[in-house]
Amino acid sequence: LEDGKRHRAPENRAQARKYLTHAFEVEPNSTSGRESLLLVADSLYKQGGSTNLVQAEAKYRDFLNRFPTSDRAAYVQMQIGNSLAARVERPDRDQSVTRAALAAFDDFLRLYPTSEHVPEARQRMAEVRAKLGEHEFEVARFYYRYGIPFATATRLNYLLANYPEYTEKDKVYFYLGLALKRMGKAEEAGQWFDKLRQEFPQSSYVGDIPGCAPE
Q1: How far apart are alpha carbons 100 and 80 in whole angstroms?
Q2: Above 80 in pLDDT, residue 185?
Q3: Whole-model pTM?
Q4: Residue 211 to residues 178, 182, 193, Cα–Cα distance (Å)
Q5: Contact in structure between 140 and 155 (CB atoms under 8 Å)
Q6: Per residue in 95-147, pLDDT tens?
Q7: How many angstroms separate the CA atoms of 192 and 18, rounded?
Q8: What secondary structure letter does DSSP report for 166?
């Protein structure tokens, strides 16, 4: 364990993990063994990169499975969420990891509501939800570009209903209006365009509303 601690500088992390892993394997249920496992997970997380983050998540989960009543359990659950959140894909890619991160932070808040890490967890949850909201928008815009306005409107309504904290509602209103207009629902489309003008008068999308500028 001490050899591992002495080699924790960024340039020595790989060597440190070898010492720490050995210390854990020798005495997995001892205090030093527990600390070694957690230090390995932290080292992988700090080094970053997809492979290291996957391994860090696995180590944190191993720690919780072995020591669920540890006084570090809240921190470890938080780090499971962080390890997942650091691996989220772009909004136009698969969001399974993003949803897993959201579930991990939700578990944290449910299991450890008095933890000092609660404010951080709520902030990270908001960031993750923003990613999911942006994913819904990108899917909706894809449908619009490929001439499927009903799917566009359905996806955007889902976004508004499930991600009320989503901050870029101006573009949601705009594309919802365009989709409804293509569906022949001019009156409903106009209501969304009016909502865009009223709530986001400075938005660049206002000038692109049909009638203000070419569609």
Answers
A1: 10
A2: yes
A3: 0.80
A4: 12, 14, 11
A5: yes
A6: 999 999 999 999 999 999 999 999 999 999 999 999 999 999 999 999 999 99
A7: 59
A8: -
Residues 83-103: pLDDT tens digits?
999 999 999 899 999 999 999
Pull the structure tokens for residue 69.
């009543």
- CA 120-96-47 angle, to 5 degrees, is 55
Give the up-direction half-sphere exposure of residue 191: CA atoms within 13 A in the CB hemisphere: 4
Q: Which residue, chain included where needed, has tokens 């569906």? A: 183
Q: How far is CA 110 from the centre of its chain?
A: 18
Tokens matching residue 122: 């709520």
Please list, in sequence order, all residues whose beta carbon lies within 8 angstroms of the beta carbon of residue 12, skipping any fewer than 6 positions away: none
- Report H helices in the chain: 2-6, 13-26, 31-47, 50-66, 73-85, 96-111, 118-145, 149-162, 169-182, 186-199
Rg of the chain taking only CA atoms, in angstroms: 23
Q: How many CB atoms lie within 10 A of CB 160?
A: 15
